[in-house]
Amino acid sequence: MEAEIATLHIMIYLQYFLQVVAGLGILNVWLLRYSQSTEYRGGKSSSMRGEFESYGLPSVTVYIVGFLKIVSAIGLIAGTLLPQLTVPSAILLAALMIGAVGMHLKISDPFKKSVPALTMLVLCVAILLLAA
């Protein structure tokens, strides 16, 4: 019985850890590195705005997606205290990551550029499995 309780606590702490890692990762990209060039930007772009232009998306899309990603990141972090936020936030972020991978495929980016989105998608799936 004690071993089962200890395992349950470990799983809860792992879920919280993944939520914080995913949330801070998204906040880092969208708030701190928004205008910075990285090797993972879509196409040959050097900023988030340029990346969305590379995908052929309307300029307003970067703001809509950014808002949704920031809200989901805050929801994942807040979900450590308000568990009812965890599942909707993880589902939203997972859907956005599927879209991100799709955009990289659309413009034939090398696989390497999809790795951050795929990693975040795996984190979201793990969070959802742990939260179930």
Give the overall pLDDT as a whole number. Answer: 96
Share of helical residues? over 70%
* Helix/strand order: HHHHH
Beta-strand portion reads under 5%
The N- and C-terminal alpha carbons lie at a distance of: 21 Å
Unreliable stretches (pLDDT < 50, length at least 5) are: none
- Class from helix and strand fractions: mainly alpha
Counting H and I runs of at least 4 residues, what is the number of helices? 5
Provide the gyration radius in Å: 16 Å
Shape: elongated
Number of strands: 0
How many strands, what sense, and barrel or not for the largest sheet? none
List keywords for this structure.
132 residues; mainly alpha; 0% strand; elongated
How does this structure look, described?
The protein is an all-alpha fold and 132 residues long. Helix 1 (2-32) runs antiparallel to helix 3, helix 3 runs antiparallel to helix 4 (86-106) and helix 4 (86-106) packs antiparallel against helix 5 (115-131). The longest helix is centred in the N-terminal third of the chain and has 31 residues, at 2-32. The protein has helices at 2-32, 48-54, 60-78, 86-106, 115-131. The protein starts with a helix and ends with a helix. The chain has one domain. It is elongated and about 55 Å long. Helices cover 72% and strands 0% of the residues.
Secondary-structure topology with pairs:
Blueprint: H1 2-32, H2 48-54, H3 60-78, H4 86-106, H5 115-131
Helix pairs in contact: 1-3, 1-5, 3-4, 4-5
